[in-house]
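To whoever is on call:

I kicked off a structure prediction for a single chain this morning and the downstream step that reads the tokens threw a length-mismatch warning. I double-checked the sequence; it's 921 residues and nothing unusual in it as far as I can see. Pasting both halves so you can look.
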Amino acid sequence: MSVFKVLDKDLRKIIKEKGFDHATLPQQEAIPEIIKGKNVLLISPTGSGKTEAIVLPVLNKIRDMDKGISALYITPLRALNRDMLHRLKWWGDKLDIDVQVRHGDTSKTQRRKQSQNPPDFLITTPETVQAILPGSRMRKHLSNTNHVIVDEIHDISDSKRGTQLCIALERLSEIAGGFQRLGLSATIGNPKEVSNFLVGKQDCSIIDSDSSKSFKFSIESPNPNKETYKIQKKTMLNKKMAAQVSRILNLISTHESTLIFVNTRELAEILASRFNLLNVDVGVHHGSISKNDRINAEKRFKNGELDALICTSSMELGIDIGRIDLVIQFNSPRQVFRMLQRIGRSGHLVGQESKGLVIASNPDEILESASIIHKGKEGELENINIRKKCYDVLSNQICGICLERDDMDIEKLHSILEKSYPYENLSKEELQDVLNQMHNHGLIYLDEDRISRRKRTWKYYYSNLSMIPDERNYTVKDMNSGKSLATLDESFVATFAKEGEIFITQGKMWRIVTIEDDEIKVEEVKDPQGTVPNWIGEEIPVPFKIAQDVGNLRKRIRKSITDKKENTDILNRYHLRDSAKNELIEYIDEQINAGFTVPTDDDILVEIGEKEIIVNSCFGHRTNKTLNQALIALLTSRLGSSIATDTGPYRIRFKLPENVSIKTFKEIFEIEPSHLEPILKMSVKNTPMFKWELVKVAKKFGIMDKDADYNSYDIDNLLDIYDGTPVYKEAMNELLGYKLDISSGKDVLKKLKSGDIEVTYIKKTTPIGTSGFDGPHNLVSPDRADDSILRALKKRIMNDHILLFCIHCKDWSIKMKIKRVGEEPKCPKCDSKMIAALNPWDRDKIKKFKKGIRGKDHKNILKSANMVLTHGKDAVIALAGRGIGPRAASRVLKSLPDEKKLYKKMMEEERKYARTHMFWD
């Protein structure tokens, strides 16, 4: 019997009209459970009919419901709202069910209409749920809610957005008297915990229909060919990247509809810009592109007007962009569930095979992709890491509850909160601490065992409907058309954006014309070496288990080489094409032939070089960052100066101010496992990452204005004031609990102590150790800095201002354009040539120098003056470079280069600064 027979007659007719002859597996399993009224978490891949599996029985049940919002459909993206409205309105119109959407872009007129005459079925976002719960009219309409559907639940359950939604569902339950909860999820590793996230302490049926989808995978590492050199010449890419672009072009031409996934917005822009130079019509889709341009890209791709669409995780979720016959993943997808989500976008229709190809850039990417695909085939997925007891979310939700009911008993408040899974273990003492904090800042009024709202409650709550961190953004506008192009993060604008600079967005090059308030006006130019914005929050972390598996694969390949066995026996099961297999074997073979240890899952290789240490450790991003932070604290304490560091899933690299012996680093590396957490708690509080986290939490607590500039606050004072409070604890918990991984870090240290993990120390660098640190900026060929680029750099420098200061008489300083500086600068008051060249904003340093205050600034002024004395105007030019201090300037000026070499070396130093400045502690 068809499962559709449990639905009423009218709905069955419409199902037949829609062309659904047979129920899919998710529909067969889910519809009966939902009809029975059970809470359900349905896990199924894209294109399996899972939306209809949830929606059809809900539509069946709400046809005869009383007036009000009978069903709430919550999605994490407004784009999904639009898509769902389009899909569900067809069913609603046929069944006389009013389906509407409400989110941040919904007009005031439409909102007012919904308040007066609510729809039966409302599609919305988590933030809009927060907005409508306190409103008296909407709350009355929501009192009729019988069904809540949370779509793409895996996408929000590991974030504070999800934690916030959990409490919102309990608030709604108080209003509606309970409702059926239904969740839609991609494949996940811990479905039971995600079901708890959905229903709290209630029962839930978990239906896992993931086996219904068929996947076809392969991994390539393209080699250069004749076409590569033509592409390289046009795009200025390095040889490897040009080979990859050549292969992608071939794949696009042999498929009808190709989706290209990348892991960062930076890489999306670099790829798109190169395809545009090759006259290939590709679209770009990521979160920093304006909404209209994203919608336009979706439509053009769906209509077949684009050769391909390059996207980030913004396209992982089920936005309808039509039929896709190939998904290219550029480099490893980093995580198993991402790989299944992304590849699953191809063969979208029921019964179709999903076809995906990974284009890998280096051996680490090949091994990582091989591990991910193998685990995906075996059904081994990552667990969703659900945040627990977030105090800033708690503050936000308590204010929301106070707006719904003005006066509440703390005991009742606690009972509502602990029904939600993230707060099931919230103690009354912890709640009291948060309430005291809120009372002190005027968010609520606390009177012994009761709370009530204050004047500030409403403003605070509605200013913080979203738990996405508040960061100042700049709108980029084409000054010719007036069209919005993208948004840039404050960090990029602060460190890079100046009038006249060139950067890439939407795959095109733009020159900054003006920067006014929060708006940047630009004009399009042709410059293959425009800078790509460094968007915050981009890195997808490689999990511990994946990194360990990569290490294990290295070990097995090493063994096959040393035992002289057939390498392909190991690699055949991993979907590797010959180019990828050969590259892997050469990679490991080169390390062995050079006489070095191959770092694996249980072998750490520490390379100690000239003022540099590379720790080869296959532990993934979070665990390596944990070890890195502890090692930095100990190294800094030992050396007494700051250290630059770079951390990846397979390596930690330290740039040191002086050489360190093997004996010294070995003593530092042997950390007692029980000491790890105290070391981290002591050391991270003085790091920029903790201070930034504290600011974000302070904003969410209403202590700082959400639009406040990071630089306008005394962060050290903030640290002192809130030490030990819920604000401080939340920032520390977020950092130690979710950005780092103390548990795995301790396990690694225990295995080091027991000998289960061996460490080899050498005073050389190795092929494996020095690979893997290339980022998007390294994709451009380093030898293509032609005359036009150098001329542009010279023009910028000549028009920059410099502050000249005489350190002899200390009585003369002047700010002037560099083009007006003489070949041998001299003080007009005392004729001295001891002239320091400083940044225009360094007048405070001059004041300190005059007062005789010693320190780093004093030394740098002396060094600067000595350089100008020796090299004249060339030194002034070098010191004017972005991020170039006296030490870097001395490298630029080494061996008295000619003008061309001077600017070429400056460009190299500026790029180095752009890549590494965020790592300086």
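Update from on-call: the warning came from a stale cache, not from the record. Cleared it. Sanity check on the structure: Residues 620-639 form the longest helix (20 residues).
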